Amino acid sequence: MEPQPPPAPKLPLFRRPATRRAVLAGGATLAAGGTAAAVFGVTQSSGSPSSNAAAREPIQLPGNGNIVASPAPTVDPNQPITDPNRRAAHLLRRAGFGGTLAQIQEFAQLSREDAANRLLSFESVDNSALEARLAAANFDLSGAKPLDYARWWMTRMAYTARPLEERMTLIWHGLLTSQLSKVGRKFAILLYTQNQLYRQNALPKWDDFIKAVSKDPGMMEYLDTVENSKAHANENYAREQMELFTMGVGNYSEDDVREAARAYTGYRFTRPAARPNNKGPYLDYHPTFQMLASQHDNGSKTFLGKTGNFDGDDIIDIIMGTPAAATHITTRLFTEFANTNPSKQTVDNLVSIWQKSGHQIRDVVHAILVSDEFYSEGSYRSLVRSPVNFVIGAIRGLELDHAGQTSAKARMAPEQYLTAMDQTLFEPPNVAGWPGGAYWLSSSTFFARLNFLDSLLGGTGKSAATIPPLAGLTATSDLVERALQIFLDGNVSESTRQAITDHADTVTDPGQRAAAVAYLVLATPEYQLV
Description:
The protein is mainly alpha-helical and about 525 residues long.
């Protein structure tokens, strides 16, 4: 489906520590950095993102009262996106992490139905090139180096030929959360196993998937199901399952929480015999779910108006029969892919599809990706890019190939940048996941995004001219138009286009000029939206 990017120079992706300095070398660098900050109307603040409260206040996009830019006043939000290239790029950004210029042009020739089906049918897409790349990188996935999990996953997202598969994995990670810090380093491998579970169930039957999550060792350790016994029922998982995962606040009682917790008593997973020297993580450990019958409460339980000797699977079956469960997941998926304000009619339609399909997530996602609402001006650029989407979108759009970098120094180290942008993979802030939206952008996190671009495009000399989609272009106008087409559908104001052109014209070295153009386009307010 998606061709592998052509070979490119080995730019220093994710290698240098983030700094608060200008982005590219020379006088044009200061102008470029100043332009990006000025367009956003923010100033660089002192202190770290975590310590400087003022720096973490959401910033505003020009002309909007909210960071999520709404359509211009002269544009009807219900008006369809008519330009084929803009439609294709919008789909690839939302159902993946953005496309190359060739992919955008390819998808522009497809109907809504064919484009959605191509992304949804990812199981038939050959992903062997990615697997070879991962094998060459030699990431340590035993649990001994937990940071390699994030590097491994970032590599998957950047180079997969199945973007929707990774996009869904990320959605589940943000909804059905677990934290490495809570699970602990000794059980780090549980989150790798959980990540694989989410990938294998990227487009699942929702009932079966939630049952699998309930028995997932990582989730059981994170929300304390492993401490749940008939003598002392632990309510953590039962509560979060209803409040955050499946139903939402107001659709259950405290009695329902207590009764559901009783149903999950006795849930355990197999434990390893010992750790090496009783220190470090458990290595080569593959836990499986087990029911400890002696700790399970076999008494009668009353849950959401039904009574019986329920276990955890029974609780999920009852939840899935409620209107709240149908509304909760369909609304969540719509807001992930389309916009944050679905109409009642839209939600009702998705609920009907969910019910008729037997609760198949694939059918709901398909309905969203072919809908008028998805391809409306009201959905276009209505969401703020998450840090992951910001980083991966840049790498994929620039077609940077790092297959040859297998040393420890050359591996991706996304934690240097994503953490400063307030998104650390395998470490959401709490069980509710990342709040997203306006919270993704503050003055400090915006400068963290510039720091990433500095690492991606700065200090590379003439080799920057061979960024594949910009290679061979020397005229500033050609460079600007190509970069705008890849990342912004060519859809920017004339003032933005002119500002990028003017600053790029001051860079005499062709290689640095290409890097400067890429940097400036990726630093625009428009690119911060997806």
